[in-house]
Amino acid sequence: MNARRKRQPRCSVCGLPPEICACDLLPTLGFATRMAIVQHVAELHKPTNTGRLFARMVEGTPIVPYGMREPAFDPGPLLDEDTEWLLLFPREGAPDLDATLPPPTPGKRRGFVVLDGTWHQCSRMGRRAPVVREMNCVALPAGEPSFWTVRTQHDPRGMSSFDAAFRALRALEGAAAVRPLFEAFALVTARMLFIKGRLKSPAVPPEWLE
Questions:
Q1: Is residue 177 classed as helix, strand or coil in its secondary structure?
Q2: Whole-number mean pLDDT of the chain?
Q3: Parallel, antiparallel or unpaired: strands 34-40 and 83-88
């Protein structure tokens, strides 16, 4: 049964089987804050990848692949002259995003780079990827639970890429502005847990949205 489930076709965006694909229900939103995803190549075809899902919903979010032999890592999307980027990763000494951030240089927008992979992969990307490794870091405060339990986090600081990107965006844009992203992520999560047999229904549990 598990082998058959692994061979089941999945949507290349939301990761769900075609009969319960959620793509038609996903919003497309634009924000003043820029977001970018640096994605480890191992995540490219995983149906449980959430960085791809975030990029589908937030306009202008590039996915920058890392870890291929060819072509070499291309940081071009992170070199926009109108954006001042911060790396969203808890390097030692990185201030929490809850702390007051200095405004970006006049004439530039604030942007966040989110690393997309396992904790180990993200740590390596943050140290090795050109341009990314020179960025100043901010960290998300620990402790906020997530309903995304599709993949196990082996480090207490770990969270899904969608969660990380969403929380950074919420901090600057406000909870009301990003609420549709939260609701759409809950929808995909519920359906994903349902097909894994961990929810009795594909409907979003009401307590998730409280």
A1: helix
A2: 91
A3: unpaired
| Contact yes or no for 113/87 (Cβ under 8 A) | yes
Annotate 19-73 with DSSP letters as a single string. Answer: GG--GGG---B--SSEEEEEEEGGGTT-TT-SHHHHHHHBTT--EEEE--SSSPP
Range of lowest pLDDT (3-12, 45-54, 131-140): 3-12
User: Between β-strands 63-66 and 83-88, what pairing exists: parallel, antiparallel or unpaired?
Assistant: unpaired
Name the residue ranges covered by the structural domains of the chain.
Answer: 25-209
Q: Where are any strands of DSSP class E within the chain?
A: 34-40, 63-66, 83-88, 109-116, 137-138
Radius of gyration of the chain (CA): 17
- Compute how many other C-beta atoms are within 10 angstroms of the C-beta atom of residue 135: 20
Q: Which residue has the tokens 């919003």?
A: 27
The hierarchical CATH code for the domain 25-209 is 3.40.1280
| Entry pTM | 0.92
